[in-house]
């Protein structure tokens, strides 16, 4: 097996060397699940910084590893912020635009910053809201600041979905976080669609229209 990539500080040091002292990493989670909000985190790293051992793309970490790291990330960063976009906003804006909105809300919780590193592709129109930024494809695996944000966002959303699971048992959200797993699909079959499901998603729309093929385990979206 190929070991997970360790994020580095090349992008951050390049910006610091050009005078951008306050560099923020941003990532979001929750675009793929069938329910729940999209959550974004923004982490302002110290210039220069010593990396926290174990921080990497949150998808390559276990839940226990993420929980062990999240307090250190909060304590050792200059600042951090969280933002979310609700199910109704996802349905109104589409999930990608809602994710961008969650990022903007996370960034608004930070003090002034010079540059933002964002995981993923270029986001049309976001620069006017957040200032200079650099999109990095698979940035959560390469940029330390983005990796920190990915861990914080994932832990926050998983905790939120566990709280929702206590109020809406039977879908397995406490461990599947809303993805189209076998137990989640079984819950949809037995309990129907909850107020927290994304009704504009093809799978949920098909269930509401009575299409039994929607209960196949063919994923609506990829994991974050």
General description of the model:
The chain is α/β, with parallel strands linked by helices and 224 residues long. It contains ten helices and five strands. It has a five-stranded mixed sheet. Helix 5 links the parallel strand 4 (115-119) and strand 5. The chain starts with 9 loop residues before the first helix and ends in a 16-residue tail after the last helix.
Structure keywords:
single chain, 224 residues, alpha/beta, five-stranded mixed β-sheet, 10 helices, 14% strand
Overall number of strands: 5
Poorly predicted regions are none
Oligomerization category of the chains in this entry: single chain
Helix and strand run: HEEHEHHEHEHHHHH
Biggest sheet strand order reads 3-2-1-4-5
Give the secondary structure arrangement, pairings included:
Blueprint: H1 10-17, E1 23-29, E2 38-45, H2 63-76, E3 79-85, H3 87-93, H4 95-108, E4 115-119, H5 127-130, E5 133-136, H6 139-142, H7 144-167, H8 173-176, H9 182-191, H10 202-208
Parallel strand pairs: 1-4, 4-5
Antiparallel strand pairs: 1-2, 2-3
Helix pairs in contact: 2-7, 3-4
């Amino acid at each position: 097996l190929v070991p997970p990539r360790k994020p580095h500080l090349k992008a951050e040091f390049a910006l610091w060397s050009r005078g951008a002292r306050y560099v923020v990493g941003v990532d979001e989670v929750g675009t793929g699940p069938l329910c729940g909000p999209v959550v974004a985190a923004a982490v302002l790293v110290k210039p220069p910084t010593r990396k926290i051992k174990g921080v990497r793309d949150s998808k390559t970490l276990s839940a226990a590893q993420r929980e062990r790291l999240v307090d250190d990330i909060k304590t050792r960063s200059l600042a951090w912020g969280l933002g979310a976009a609700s199910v109704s906003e996802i349905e109104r804006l589409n999930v990608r635009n809602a994710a961008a909105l969650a990022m903007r809300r996370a960034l608004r919780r930070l003090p002034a910053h010079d540059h933002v590193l964002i995981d993923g592709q270029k986001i049309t129109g976001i620069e006017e809201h957040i200032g200079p930024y650099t999109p990095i494809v698979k940035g959560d695996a390469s940029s330390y600041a983005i990796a920190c944000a990915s861990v914080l966002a994932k832990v926050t959303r998983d905790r939120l979905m566990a709280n929702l699971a206590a109020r809406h048992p039977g879908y397995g959200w406490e461990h599947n976080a809303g993805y189209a797993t076998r137990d989640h699909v079984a819950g949809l079959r037995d309990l129907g669609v909850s107020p927290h499901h994304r009704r504009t998603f093809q799978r949920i729309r098909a269930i509401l229209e009575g299409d039994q093929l929607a209960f196949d385990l063919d994923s609506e979206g990829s994991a974050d």
